[in-house]
Design brief:
With about 290 residues, this protein is of the alpha/beta class. The chain contains nine helices and nine strands. The protein has a single domain, classed as Rossmann fold, CATH 3.40.50.1820.
Length: about 290
């Protein structure tokens, strides 16, 4: 009898223990699922509010204005990012003739900007862009290659940054771009020399202009598009685009130039941006 009772009590103990363990397991699974659901909801909230600064609207898209290490910066997010998170980096005149940017936002591209206008594409400007590039690709997961867009004097920074970082560039789009400091109107020449730390003699003897340093872009096979007004007197074609086109082709590089007969420096871009957008989409490949 003692043995029988002992065995019966042991079985009861084991049954109670199994039941307790099951209850604990169920409770653990409930807690775990709750944590997982919370994390998913939290991560979605974070991803939706991932960018710093003031949020406003830019042509129906979310625009974020913030300071990045003392420089005004902008990120415009598409409604749904394309695979690979492609982006176009605008160098100057952020809201001017935005039709290319808007078309690419609709295609799932991000649009970004950081203000280096007072530096005229100098090494200081390139360093600021290097830092902003690292921030966008490392912090926000942007594609390692970008599309560069430079209107007018914005041509200096897109070219100078691309020359230093040719393997980080899908393609380069210059719109009436300045490609030689000496070709820019003299009204801002003092500011240019100050940005580079040049004397007058150094300014005129400088051989670090985009027109002088196209070899790294050609070696990396970076496609280039220029849109120009043939009657441009502010950024003369003969001193800028024509020089780039001849030298880039001589280096084996691929460059396309869209001419606007009889048009001056303005308006920039094209009323129908399709040829520009198609050029960019053709060369954005992961």
């Amino acid at each position: 009898m003692r043995i029988s009772v002992s065995i019966c009590n042991c079985g009861s103990f084991r049954q109670d223990n199994v039941t307790t363990n099951k209850m604990k397991m169920i409770q653990f699974l409930k807690i775990t699922m709750g944590i997982v659901l919370f994390c998913l909801c939290f991560s979605q909230t974070i991803s939706a509010q991932d960018y710093p600064g003031e949020k406003t609207e830019y042509h129906t898209f979310d625009r974020y204005d913030f300071m990045h290490k003392g420089r005004p910066a902008i990120i415009v997010a598409p409604k749904q990012a394309a695979d690979g998170k492609p982006w176009i980096w605008r160098a100057r005149f952020f809201t001017h003739e935005p039709q290319v940017d808007i078309a690419l936002l609709h295609k799932g591209f991000h649009l970004v900007y950081i203000d280096v206008v007072d530096l005229f594409g100098s090494p200081k400007a390139v360093q600021i862009w290097d830092d902003f590039y690292a921030y966008l690709t490392e912090k926000h997961g942007f594609a390692k290659k970008t599309v560069l867009e430079g209107l007018s004097r914005g041509g200096l920074i897109i070219y100078n940054w691309a020359i230093q970082n040719p393997h980080n560039v899908f393609c380069l789009y210059g719109d009436a771009p300045v490609c030689d400091l000496r070709s820019w109107p003299g009204v801002e020449r003092k500011e240019m020399m100050a940005a580079y730390g040049f004397t007058r003699e150094q300014f005129w003897a400088y051989k670090g202009n985009p027109v002088d340093n196209l070899a790294p872009l050609a070696a990396a096979k970076v496609p280039i598009l220029h849109v120009i007004g043939d009657a441009d007197e502010v950024v003369p074609v003969a001193e800028n685009t024509a020089v780039v086109e001849a030298r880039y082709k001589a280096l084996g590089g691929h460059i396309t130039v869209i001419h606007k007969p009889g048009v001056g420096h303005h308006p920039h871009s094209l009323e129908d941006p399709t040829p520009i957008v198609e050029f960019i989409l053709q060369h954005v490949k992961f």
